[in-house]
Amino acid sequence: MINAPTFRQMQYLLALHETHNFGKAAQQCHVTQPTLSQAIVEMETILGAKLLDRSRRKSVTFTNFGLTTLQTIEEILPKLEALMDNAKQMQEPLSGAMRLGIIPTIAPYMLPQLLPAMHQNFSKMEFQITEDMSHLLIERLNEGKIDLALMALPYETGSLNTLKLYEEAFYCAAPKGTFKKNVKLNSDDLNDHNLLLLQDGHCLRDHILSACKKADDASEQPLKATSLQTLIQMVGQRYGLTLLPEMVIHQGVMPKGVDIHAFKRPVPTRQIGLVWRGGGYKEANIQAVIKHLKKAL
Questions:
Q1: Taking Cα atoms as reference points, which of 280, 235, 279, 271 lies closest to residue 255?
Q2: Domain range spanning residue 77?
Q3: In whole angstroms, what separates CA 93 from the centre of its chain?
Q4: Per the structure, how many domains does the chain have?
Q5: Which of 59-63, 87-91, 267-271 has the lowest mean pLDDT?
Q6: How far apart are CA 289 and CA 166, in angstroms?
Q7: In this structure, is residue 1 part of a structural domain?
Q8: Does residue 63 form part of some domain?
Q9: How many CB atoms are located within 10 Å of the residue 156 CB?
Q10: Same domain membership, residue 200 and residue 215
Q11: Which of 7, 11, 140, 249 is least enclosed, having the fewest CB within 10 Å?
């Protein structure tokens, strides 16, 4: 019988490639760093060739053989995971891994409330959370790397299934004193002010531009943030104003230098929804989670 690398060893190597850091890879795999390092050494012994170039001590560098091995693992691992999950679900419904993708402008505001209830309702499921931008979550869905995505709509999802859960309003976050206190705004009120946005790739950027009826001219927007919290701090420092989803407003106190203003009707909104591929062996589990999220949200 051929002595082959184990399932866990392949997972460790793939995590190292994704993170390019032994500590982060070990954390992602829920093991200690020495355990992960030793597993990769054992994998090299089994294969009889080096996977990593250890002459470069300050960076994680794969050998050519290591890169070829990764390509094979990326093909094999999803099939092995599917086989194991399918077998487990046949024995025990509503069990196995549930890989949930969620965008950064939703994750920190919803997960603290959603995850405890999901663990309670689906105690035999292992929820694996991936936080990433919308286009990358769509890629992962199409590649079968995640099962379900919670994201903002509208968004181009191709042939994937979508379900709108609810609609939430946008509010204007402006430096204190920009507008009269408690006054409601319309989109024209924002025209003479610097509109702060997230960097390219965030769907919230497109939703804000649409709500403000503005074109995406990057040359007019020299300041861009990588997170909503950074965006809020920039408003507080009087660099400009921005639009924030309702869930952000409800989550906590704004900095002292920021005023929040509602909009007049028609109020600009974004939709919160689910996206999934459908039709696979996990369909029953996905539908059960969708039903729970519809009720919860």
A1: 235
A2: 7-89
A3: 27
A4: 3
A5: 87-91
A6: 16
A7: no
A8: yes
A9: 10
A10: yes
A11: 7
CATH number at residue 234: 3.40.190.10
Q: Does 257 lie in the same domain as 177?
A: yes
Asked whether residue 84 is domain-assigned, the answer is yes
Q: How confident is the model at residue 215 (pLDDT cuts 50, 70, 90)?
A: low
CA 182/CA 180 separation, integer angstroms: 6
What are residue 291's phi and psi, to 5 degrees?
-60, -40
- 106 with 199, same domain? no
Burial per residue of 97-127, b for 16 or more beta-carbon CB atoms within 10 angstroms, e otherwise:
bbbbbbbbbbbbbbbeebeeebeeebeebee
Whole-prediction pTM: 0.72
The domain spanning residue 69 has which CATH number? 1.10.10.10
Same domain, 209 and 229: yes
Q: Which two tokens stand for residue 238?
A: 């009087």
More confident residue, 279 or 292: 292
Q: Which residue has the tokens 């649409």?
A: 210
Query: With the C-alpha atoms ordered 108, 150, 80, 51, is the resulting torsion angle positive or negative?
Result: negative
Structure tokens at 34: 């020495």
Whether 240 and 148 map to the same domain: the answer is: no
Chain segment 160-170, per-residue pLDDT in tens? 999 999 999 99
Q: Which residues pair with 126 in a beta bridge?
A: 97
7: amino acid identity, one letter:
F
